[in-house]
From TrEMBL:
Keywords: ATP-binding, Kinase, Nucleotide-binding, Transferase. ATP binds at residues 11-19, 134-138, 182-184. SUPFAM superfamilies: P-loop containing nucleoside triphosphate hydrolases. GO terms for molecular function: ATP binding; deoxynucleoside kinase activity. GO terms for cellular component: cytoplasm. It comes from Heyndrickxia coagulans. Residues 7-199 form the Deoxynucleoside kinase domain. The keyword ATP-binding applies. It comes from the Bacteria. The active site is at residue 82. Belongs to the DCK/DGK family. This is Deoxynucleoside kinase. CDD domains: dNK.
Length: 212
C-alpha cells in the first residue's frame, strides 16, 4: 500500500521551520499544519519566568499539536507540519521540574499512542549566531526575553535527540539541512535544491500527488 506523504520539519527556535513548511506546502500542494505560537497565552510569561509558567506553556502546545494531528488522521491527506510532536518532550525535559516532567510524559504517552507518524523528517540546524539573527528579524515581542544560553542548550538537545531518533527509526528518512550555509528564505536557488532533495526522498517510498 502506498503511504500518504507526511513531512515533519524540526529544529531549534528561529531556524526557519514555518517558512520551509509553507514552501513545501505550496510546491507539493500538501496540507499545511502550522504550530500555534502567538496564540499561546502563557508563552510571554514563560520567557520571563520559566519555573512558574513552563508546565502551562508545554501543555498548551501539546494539546494543540494533538488536535491538529487528530484532524489529520481523519482525512489522510498529504501534509507537511512545521513540527514533530516529539518536540514536546525536548522542551519539557529542558524546562519542567522532575515531578512535572513525569506527569507530562504520562499525558504525552496517552495522547500520542495512535498518532499519525511522519514518514519523512526534515531537520534544520544552525549556529547560535544565525538563530539569534533570524529571531531578531522576525521580531516577536515575547522572544526578546529569551536567554542565549537557553537557545544554545535547546540546540544541543535537538542534536542529541535527532541522533537518537535516527538510531531508533532507521526506516524513516531524515534530511538534514545546514541553515548557516543555506538561506532558503532569501535565495531561491537554495530553496529549489532543498525541494528537489525532498522530492527525491518522497519518490523513493512515499506516493505524492505531483508538484505545482
Amino acid at each position: 500500500m502506498e503511504r500518504v506523504p507526511f513531512i515533519a520539519i524540526e529544529g531549534p527556535i528561529g531556524v526557519g521551520k514555518t517558512s520551509l513548511a509553507k514552501a513545501i506546502s505550496a510546491y507539493f500542494s500538501f496540507e499545511l499544519l502550522k504550530e500555534i505560537v502567538d496564540e499561546n497565552p502563557f508563552l510571554g510569561k514563560f520567557y520571563t519566568n520559566k519555573e512558574e509558567w513552563s508546565f502551562q506553556t508545554e501543555m498548551f502546545f501539546l494539546c494543540n499539536r494533538y488536535k491538529q494531528l487528530e484532524d489529520l488522521k481523519q482525512h489522510r491527506q498529504p501534509a507537511v507540519a512545521d513540527y514533530h510532536i516529539f518536540k514536546s518532550l525536548i522542551f519539557a525535559r529542558r524546562t519542567l521540574k522532575t515531578d512535572e516532567f513525569e506527569k507530562f510524559s504520562k499525558i504525552y504517552d496517552i495522547l500520542t499512542a495512535d498518532m499519525p507518524q511522519p514518514n519523512v523528517i526534515i531537520y534544520l540546524h544552525a549556529s547560535l549566531e544565525t538563530l539569534l539573527k533570524r529571531i531578531e528579524i522576525r521580531g516577536r515581542a515575547f522572544e526578546k526575553n529569551m536567554q542565549e544560553t537557553y537557545l544554545q542548550k535547546l540546540s544541543a538537545d535537538y542534536g542529541r535527540f535527532m541522533s537518537r531518533f535516527e538510531a531508533e527509526h532507521p526506516n524513516i528518512p531524515v534530511l538534514k539541512f545546514d541553515c548557516d550555509t543555506l538561506d532558503f528564505i532569501r535565495h531561491e536557488h537554495d530553496l529549489k535544491s532543498m525541494l528537489q532533495e525532498i522530492a527525491l526522498t518522497l519518490q523513493k517510498g512515499v506516493h505524492t500527488h505531483g508538484t505545482s
